[in-house]
Amino acid sequence: MSEVSKKLFLLDGMVLIFRSHFAFSRNPRITHQGRNVSIPYGFTSTLVKILEKEKPTHIAVVFDTAGPTQRHLIFPDYKGHRDSAPEELDTAIPDVDQILGAFNIPVYRLGGYEADDLIGTIAREAEKEKFETYLVTTDKDFAQLVTDTTYLYRLSSRSDAEEIMGIEQIKEKWKVQRPQQVIDILSLWGDSSDNIPGVTGIGEKTAQKLLAQFDNLENLLKNTAQLKGKQRENLENESSVAKLSKQLATIDCKVPFEFNFEDMRRRSPDITRLNDIFIEFEFNQLGKRVFGDLFDRQKDAAKAELLQTINDIEVNYQLAETADERSNLIGLLSQQPAFCFDCETTSLDKKEAQLVGLAFSFDAQTGFFVPLPIDQYECKSILTEFQTLFEDTGIEKVGQNLKYDLTVLRWYGIEAKGPFFDTMIAHQLIAPHLRHGMDFLAETYLKYSPIPIQALIGDKKDQQRSIREVAPDELMTYAIEDADITWQLRSVFAQLLTEFQLERVFYQVECPTIPVLAALEFNGIKTDSIALSDYSLELSQEIMNLERKIYDLAGTRFNLDSPKQVGKILFEELQLESDPGKTKTGQYKTDVKVLERLAPNHLIAQHMLDFRACRKLKNTYVDQLSASIFQSTGRIHTTYEQAFTATGRMQSHSPNLQNIPIRTDRGKEIRRAFISRDHNHSILSADYSQIELRIIAELSQDQALISAFESNLDIHTETAAKIFDVPFDQVDSEMRRRAKMVNYGIVYGISPFGLSQRLAIPRGEAVEIIDQYFKQFPGVPVYIEETVEFARQYGYVRTMTGRRRYLPDIQSQNATMRNGAERNAVNSPIQGSAADLIKLAMSSIYQSISKRNLRTQMILQVHDELLFDLHKDEQDIVIPLVVKKMKTALSMSVPIEVEIGIGCNWLEAH
């Protein structure tokens, strides 16, 4: 962008507000006080970026008003199809106004006119005053305003990108001779976003061709005799509609309202006012960006006025350093019904972490710290003193993110046993939309600000000291404070769990799962590094072969990573399609869907698909898995997130073992590298069969579905027989495929359009299939209707064990968001109950294996499947045990089936 003396930025306020709303709709920014600040945050982020990057000399923000505009007077249905604005805007717009006021940026709005018209009026006056003007928006209408000194500053869907469009860019994008012709394009094509009708049968490309021939709408309407057929008929019959559409699409650049450019001159913000707003809205990163370290100091000062710290209260924190002191502590803890403990370690990586100390608490403002020496033999010796205490099943162990502590203790040979109470897990159930870190919980529920770790080890990463270098008294206070806070949170959350009827899912499902996941992470799964290395080389060779074949077919070498070059080869050089689709930036579309469409008839497209698949397999999976093998054990020790998702399904990371490909032969081959620990063991796979469909049957109590499962029929064949009205034995593979898509589609709230896309059938046929499904299984639509109604009434839905999924958009006036919430209302009890089921099964199996002192170990959980390192001598004991526990984990009237497989590796077992 050029350096000019006068650079004016005009921001379309409502566009930025809606953009921010949708950017955070799935993951809103909520303050400690429960205030949704998503829109103000998104808006301010964009504003700050523009101020920093573009350095405008002048700036203003323009908003629409709520009432009807001049366009409504001439066309009452103007924008009439739009949903009501989200309720969030009622509070967000005043917040944004407040922020703009603190930035000293003028705001313009005028009843009866749209922001487009005010911006157009200002922009035209700015030209006369020799400004270089940038219109910040995503609306295509603004293209008509572009001149030699007025540009579109189009915001991308990504917050860190934008596109600046001048005359040449507008001409290229719209295929016009001058930007003003965009008005004529819209008058013919219409604009669905504003409900501008346009002319029947004329789309964007046709409109461009007509304007290339006739220059403008008026000239076109005078010369319709040169046209033929339906096009001429429509233009002549709808000439008044076309003229109306042009009137609606034209931005009024002569709005009578007062403004002056001196008011728009960029001024310094009101630092005090803006800083206060940023603190109130918890714009921490933005605050540091705008104010630097000053913001941290002022934020801390503001927080200090509201929150207590260690300096405001009297505590009884004690060091238990000698053998006698430790013995007295153990005796004291042994007498308690519950105690909290927290491990202080040198690393967050459980495999590498060394214990520095243990903190305990069982009463508010009271606690003990046991320092542990660097000598690991001596450290383990001290820990052994606490082994009986940790293994006592009569004492509840309390912690924050207990899985970490339990796994660390396992590396030291101590297996802590429940019952457990994890405050992080409790809060994930109570308020899943909020943060769950201890600092947040302490500030929110205890009005207390904990000692930051930086106070001990320093702020700057390259200058931070090790936790072992911290003075014992400092470390003692920090460590015990963590345990003390967690102990106090326990009573708060126990009450909330009861209030929200979450006791069953917390105490019976989640807490017993904690030691199971700690065991899985500790056990790991043995991985054949040589097999992975060999497969990586094999894929490398395959990638090179495919690359050579692609170049041979193309007749030239090119960059396979460049969509632009790939598109040029496919659609210009090889001309595989006469009218290929393009992206918003004008490039040819070369994504997977395009290549899959071309592949049956064009070998080069199939080779490109294979090339991409092989390279992704190698880079994303094979090589990453090799790098994840822990050298001292020869195993991969993944990390599980227990209650991270809204439905309660577990996730795996570092590395993610739940997304190992299974649908392709190449992907399946990776599973061959996951092997049993030695020749005395095999891999046992236990996989729930069609569990989500069985849960649909249970929740809906549809007798036809239940009967099919009770008869042990193939559910997809049975469904096909019913919806296509043919005998069971006459169902062909295509019928079964369609029925399977419907069965699983129902879980995700599939629409007729979605089903038609997946099955490549007309929408009308998809409607008939879904209607027939609901007729044959009438309990399912009743379940859907009743579940959505429950969600509307209470704002959440529940799983079979009581887990809640909150649905804040279930009453939204925005149809897209409301429909999404309704789909979640239907599928969350299904997916969530499946998640609860496998957790119940895991804890039950784990407890049985532990009690019997079996050598078999559970080593992996992937969706509905459990993997075990099965000792060959225990096969007759373990398999019936696993099957029984999985089948009976949750009381259901619908029979549950478990598929069993055994092999020397995961591929053979599954």
Please give a handful of descriptors for the protein shown.
Nucleotidyltransferase, domain 5, 6-stranded mixed beta sheet, alpha/beta, 6 domains, 910 residues, 39 helices
List low-pLDDT spans. Answer: none
What would you call the structural class? alpha/beta
**Largest sheet: number of strands, sense, barrel closure:** 6 strands, mixed
Lateral strand order in the biggest sheet? 3-2-1-4-5-6
CATH fold name of the largest domain: Rossmann fold
Number of strands: 23
Q: Helix segment count?
A: 39
What is the overall pLDDT average? 90
Radius of gyration equals 32 Å
Shape designation: globular
CATH class of the largest domain: Alpha Beta
> How much of the residues is beta strand, in percent?
5-15%
Question: What is the assigned CATH homologous superfamily of the largest domain?
Answer: 5'-nuclease
How far apart are the termini?
A: 58 Å
- The helix content, as a percent range, equals 40-55%
Please explain how this structure is put together.
With 910 residues, this protein is of the alpha/beta class. It folds into six domains: 7-263, 5'-nuclease (Rossmann fold), CATH 3.40.50.1010; 270-303, no CATH class; 317-500, Ribonuclease H-like superfamily/Ribonuclease H (Nucleotidyltransferase, domain 5, 2-Layer Sandwich), CATH 3.30.420.10; 530-631, Taq DNA Polymerase, Chain T, domain 4, CATH 1.20.1060.10; 686-691 and 834-909, Alpha-Beta Plaits (2-Layer Sandwich); 694-829, DNA polymerase, domain 1, CATH 1.10.150. Helices cover 51% and strands 12% of the residues. It is built from 39 helices and 23 strands. A six-stranded mixed β-sheet has the order 3-2-1-4-5-6. It has a six-stranded mixed β-sheet with strand order 7-10-9-8-11-12, with helices on both faces. Strands 21-22-18-23 form a four-stranded antiparallel β-sheet. Strand 19 and strand 20 (804-806) form a beta hairpin. The longest helix has 37 residues, at 815-851.
